Amino acid sequence: MKTRRDVFQAIADPTRRAILLLLASQAMTPNAIAEEFHTSRQAVSKHIQILTECDLVKQEQKGREIYYHIQANKMKEIDKWIEKFKKTWETRFNQLDKVLSTMKKENE
For the whole model, what pTM was predicted? Predict the structure, then answer.
């Protein structure tokens, strides 16, 4: 039975985020990905499996090799969700800048 994984749990792991960064520039085989980490190929395969289950990564067979590449559409969904929070924080930081600027002028 296939477990449904949460995208945000998947990207919470630093190794999986690093794998996504690697795949953002080019498709790679599991062995090539594993060479970038100081861990076993099995551990990296587990991370790839989780990313695949969340549709963040897709596999493609080329000859005898399997290549993994990032799913840009899924990453855009994450970015869209995070953008809401970014706007909120930018507004709050701008308000803080105004308060600090006012306080600085009053102290001069």
Answer: 0.74
pLDDT tens for 32-80 read: 999 999 888 899 999 999 999 999 999 999 999 999 999 988 888 888 8
Question: Identity (one letter) of the amino acid at 28?
Answer: M
- At the topology level of CATH, where does 1-70 sit? Arc Repressor Mutant, subunit A (1.10.10)
Q: How far apart are CA 98 and CA 73, in angstroms?
A: 37
Q: Which two tokens stand for residue 33?
A: 């990905």
Tokens read off for 61? 């067979």
SS3 per residue for the chain: CCCCCCHHHHHHCHHHHHHHHHHHHCCECHHHHHCCCCCCHHHHHHHHHHHHHCCCEEEEEECCEEEEEECHHHHHHHHHHHHHHHHHHHHHHHHHHHHHHHHHHHHC
